Amino acid sequence: MKLSLIAAKICSAVPEGKGDVEIKSISSPKLAEVDDITFLSDPKYKEQIDCSGAGAVIVKKGVVFPGKICLEVDDPYLGYALTAQLFEDASPLFGDGIHKSAFVDPSAKIDASVSIGPGTVIGADVHIGANTRIDANCVIERSTRIGESVRIDSGAVIRYGTIIGSDVLIQSGAVIGSDGFGNAKSGAQFVRIPCFGIVIIEDGAEIGACVTIDRGNFEPTVIGKGVKLDNLIHLAHNVEIGANTAIAAQTGISGSTRVGERVIIAGQVGFVGHIEIGDDSFVGAKSGVSKDVKPKAKITGYPARDFMTMRRIEACMSELPDLLKEVKRLKTELESLKNAANATSV
User: Fold this and answer.
1) Residue 63 burial by CB count (10 A; 0-12/13-18/19+): exposed, middle or buried?
2) Which residue pairs, CB below 8 angstroms and at least 24 apart, start in 272-275?
3) What is the rounded CA–CA span in Å between residue 304 and residue 317?
4) Which of 67, 104, 159, 267 is 20 to 30 A (C-alpha) from 250?
5) Known catalytic residue: 237?
């Protein structure tokens, strides 16, 4: 790949006479060779770049490494992400077209450019758009709608009626459209409540491995545009995730909770149902969120509270052992004073 193509992708100027330099791959500073490109997003790794064999490096504007071709950008980490996409192999893992062992219902409407891997099942009235890739042993149930340039990795299950936009990524083991966890009580027994809604995944969303998303009871469960879901996340029925929100692994969100746009949720967070998380908010790892969160708020802890308040609480907790010793000492001293006072009064 010519360096000029990479530079255009990351909006960097090309050093004079270097546009036709061929770049083989993107690599870490330690592993890079002369025909590789690497990046520096944190100045503390500068020595690694100095010692790297890489011929080209993506750097922050104004940073120079003698003897290396430097592509200067405002955000080197973003430059790395965009460059990595250029080198990603997006070709079908099991070849073009529909594998002979796949089952496709005759009523399904599938663009000629779609690839479908071995063992995959496509149900009745499924529509699949151009340049979509479905790998091995996937199940796409009836009446599902899938847009263009979608990638569904091996072993994913897309249940009936799901609507998936374009440029969506769904990784292995994900289950989209499973029944919600709804039960009524009859004496000592639970009575299952069927779900009649669907799941909607909008354009550009990414669903991690082994994510489970429940269908809505009546209205849909909605994953907004550009949402990024890490692995091992559970979203219950009628949850709504706003555009460009990112959620880390092992988070669980209970039914009918609405998460706003551009929210960042760290790992292992638990949310109760029927609350609202405001736009541009942040939720720290292992938090337990039991009430509404205002826009732009930063919260953490169990139960989740203001980020700085929790930091002060945690700082105080580290002093508790010494404080307990001091309380015991004062208690002993107080008892001695009382005994001395009683002896004097007698």
Assistant:
1) middle
2) 273/236
3) 16
4) 159
5) yes
Buried b (16+ CB within 10 A) or exposed e, 268-293: ebbbeeebebbbbbbbbebbebeeeb
Percent above pLDDT 70 for the chain? 100
CA atoms of 238 and 196, how far apart (whole Å): 11
Average pLDDT over residues 85-105: 96
DSSP state of 43: G
In this structure, the number of other CB atoms found within 10 A of the CB of residue 2 comes to: 14
Residue 254 token pair: 């209970």
Residues in Cβ contact with 162 at an 8 Å cutoff, skipping those fewer than 6 apart: 141, 144, 145, 176, 177, 198, 199, 200, 201, 215
What's the pTM? 0.90
Confidence of residue 346 (pLDDT cuts 50, 70, 90): low
Task: Name the residue among 96, 100, 164 with its Cα closest to residue 131.
Answer: 96
Confidence grade of residue 31 (pLDDT, cut at 50, 70, 90): very high
